[in-house]
Write a structure and sequence with these properties.
single chain; alpha+beta; 4 helices; globular; seven-stranded mixed β-sheet; Aminopeptidase; 174 residues
Amino acid sequence: MTWTIAPEPFDSPAAAALWRAYYTEVSDRWYLLHEGRRTDPAELEREVAANTGAELAPPGGQLLVARYDGEPAGCAGVRLLDAATGELKRVFVYEGMRGKGGAALLVAAAEDAARALGARQLILDTRSDLVEARALYARLGYTETERHNDQPYAEHWFRKNLDDNGHERLEYLN
């Protein structure tokens, strides 16, 4: 069983299915925690339509899809905010594929994609209830920092310098 990670158009069928699964999971988690219900289906459709992921397309971004034994299993994206700063977005692995190392490989691939776009640092935001994500970012060398945006659901902000010194390139691309 092997992971492969490669760039993917943000609007491919695999990317669309991963985005829908990602949004459903994070939205349902928030609503269940705060309102005791799942996401309203109409809201889900509005958000998926409104947030296509177009910002993750070249030349200013990149979406990566991880496949496990050839089947789409996860994604991660980066987009440039300025000449030196990239933002890590949509890091997600299907629930049944978690615990197999895919998330760390996706983040490493996203870091490499950000470097290729010229970024020298990556930033991201996440929520308090996404404890697995926060643990992953800390384990991968991201440092919790001050607020860097006004996203309504953001509660934690992270940063990582993408210094190539000591960076060992992982071989995960086809």
